[in-house]
Amino acid sequence: MNESKLADLLAQVSVGTLPPDQALERLRTLPFAESGQVLADTHRMIRQGFPEAVYAEGKTLAQTTDALTALVAAHGGALATRVTSEVASSLLQCFPTGSYDSVSRLYRIGQMSGTFSSAPVAVVCAGTSDLPVAEESAQTLEFAGAKVNRFTDVGVAGLHRLLARLDDLRAASIVIAIAGMEGALPSVLGGLVAAPVIAVPTSVGYGANLHGISALLSMLNTCASGLTVVNIDNGFGAAVAALRILNMPPKA
Q1: What does the pLDDT look like over 172-221, one tens digit per residue?
Q2: How far apart are CA 183 and CA 161, in angstroms?
Q3: Nearest 5°: CA angle at 213, between 209 and 218?
Q4: Class of 121-246 in CATH
Q5: Exposed, middle or buried, 120 (CB in 10 Å: 0-12/13-18/19+)?
Q6: Which stretches of 95-234 are DSSP H helices?
Q7: pLDDT, position 29
Q8: Cα 4 to Cα 144: distance, rounded to the nearest angstrom
Q9: Contact assessment for residue 205 and residue 236, using Cβ atoms and an 8 Å cutoff
Q10: Does an H or E element contain 54, and which?
């Protein structure tokens, strides 16, 4: 159940078209829904503005399917992250209207009903090796109805590539900056644009990169004030952080 459905339910009770006992019965499943081994948090959309997504890595096919079934029943659509191609093939049999993207490893069934009137979110990645994380961000945003502009392969090793897109970047509502190696891209962007910058370190890089820890520490130690940093390879988390910013009510 989402906020609009809840408001409609209360309106029906208010005008007398729905008896209170029937409304109560519908509300019994509001906070969560039990499905197999899974307790799906169907209330999260109302609390946070974005529904629960299924983190498929480490889950069995049955657990992933149970969770998606409950979330689709509650919201009409659902999103699963870190889905392997083998699991995706099975999910397509269970949810034939869904779609799978092998780069982002996202499995999407439908999408959220809302849209955003704000300027697009810029999803910027330093190199094409960072694309899996960048696409996880971009497609999560699109699932939520946000507009996205993608900027790929504009890392600081060829800074002119980034500067050539500066006008477009400055027009964005939020910038999600994704980089591995030494993780310098978000710091550069943080000094060039006024919009919030959300930095995502990736595990891309040679040995001293330490599977993304070097990039993470570089981003946390940036001298570009106000930079927000999420965990290594967490494109999904960066997208949801951006959606929380976009969902903030306008100033009076």
Answers
A1: 999 999 999 999 999 999 999 999 999 999 999 999 989 999 999 999 99
A2: 17
A3: 90
A4: alpha beta
A5: middle
A6: 131-143, 159-163, 166-170, 185-190, 213-220
A7: 59
A8: 15
A9: no
A10: strand 54-55
Q: pLDDT tens digits, residue range 9-28?
A: 788 888 888 888 777 766 66
Distance of CA 7 to the CA centre of its chain: 25
Q: Which amino acid is at 118?
A: S
Per-residue pLDDT tens digits for 59-73? 999 999 988 988 888
Per-domain residue ranges for the chain?
A: 28-109, 121-246
Cα–Cα distances (Å) from 131 to 82, 101, 114, 234, in that order, read 14, 12, 26, 12
Task: Give percent of the chain above pLDDT 70.
Answer: 90
Confidence of residue 229 (pLDDT cuts 50, 70, 90): very high
Nearest CA among 62, 42, 55 for reference residue 107: 55
Give the separation between CA 219 and CA 222, rounded to whole angstroms: 5
What is the torsional sign of CA 52, 140, 136, 176? negative
**C-alpha to C-alpha distance for 126 and 185, rounded to whole angstroms:** 7
Confidence of residue 251 (pLDDT cuts 50, 70, 90): low
- From residue 238, alpha-carbon distances to 32, 69, 119, 133, 245 in Å are 25, 25, 17, 10, 11
